[in-house]
Amino acid sequence: MRITIVLEDARHSMDVQPEDKVRDLKDQIEKNLLVQTIDDKRMGKFLEMKFGGAALNDDWVVQDLGLVSGSVLKCATKIVDKPKLNVYLGYNKDTLHIMDDIDPIKTTIGSIRSLLSSTLGIPVSAFNLSVNSRNKKTNNKMSKRELFDRNTMDYYGLEIGSTIILDLWDGWNELILAAISGHENVVSQYLSWDRPVRNFQQRTALYIASHRGYMGLATAMMKRGAKAHEPVGTYP
């Protein structure tokens, strides 16, 4: 079956088979029409294919698309920036993609921690950062290696596009997740009886409430003694 490919306002004929996938069509176009794509750590340049105005998935099969002889597929090259750093958030199993310019040789873990704090609205002292690495003491099994603020990304072998892990301190997930959702009653249930720990928890919840605009939670924490002008402090 012969179809028409429109690329940069030029029309080209191409023979396709019913069992071909969209990925196969793109490979033909890249080879026959000398379209260059890029896939490196910093950016990606890829070929987008549309039929009837809808973008086609690479795994879709020609015979399922409703194509007939003479059908027209429109193609265009798209350029996208790739994340400079990926951060797996252990407390909600999500991944945060950092697009800011990062130089692994110069960027310290401390500056990344500050960036994450301002992005997520969680105090720097409420979480730790680590990276999965192979441990020679355990027959090269993967284990978490803690990242310390004073060191650079390069010190830990982190490159552009690497993934690090953000975990809250043990036992704090429920309280901080409740604060992120603005549930002051739930936050109150998880406050410790130990005064130093409770004070830190309240300041942490107040910090999160201020970042997210939760007046109810902020008011509740200040009534319990948290003061807006006081720093959150270090983990007790």
Using brief descriptors, characterize the structure shown.
5-stranded mixed β-sheet; single chain; Ubiquitin-like domain-containing protein; 28% helix; ANKUB1; alpha+beta; 3 domains; 6 helices; 236 residues; Ubiquitin-like (UB roll)
Give the topology, please:
Blueprint: E1 2-7, E2 10-15, H1 22-32, E3 38-39, E4 43-51, E5 54-55, E6 72-81, E7 85-89, E8 94-98, H2 109-120, E9 127-135, E10 141-146, E11 162-168, H3 173-181, H4 184-189, H5 195-212, H6 215-223
Helix pairs in contact: 3-5, 5-6
Compute the CA-based radius of gyration. 25 Å
Number of helices: 6
Q: How does the major sheet shape up?
A: 6 strands, mixed
- Dominant shape: elongated
Could you give the distance between the termini? 70 Å
CATH topology heading of the largest domain: Ubiquitin-like (UB roll)
Task: Please identify the structural class as seen in this structure.
Answer: alpha+beta
CATH architecture heading of the largest domain: Roll
| Mean pLDDT over the full residue set | 89
Strand percentage, roughly? 25-35%
Helix-strand pattern: EEHEEEEEEHEEEHHHH
Instruction: Write down the domain tally.
Output: 3
- Would you report the number of β strands? 11
- Name of the CATH first level of the largest domain: Alpha Beta
Low-confidence stretches: none
InterPro entries: ANKUB1 (IPR042788), Ankyrin_rpt-contain_sf (IPR036770), Ubiquitin-like_dom (IPR000626), Ubiquitin-like_domsf (IPR029071)
Domain Ubiquitin-like: 1-73
Protein name: Ubiquitin-like domain-containing protein
Organism: Ciona intestinalis
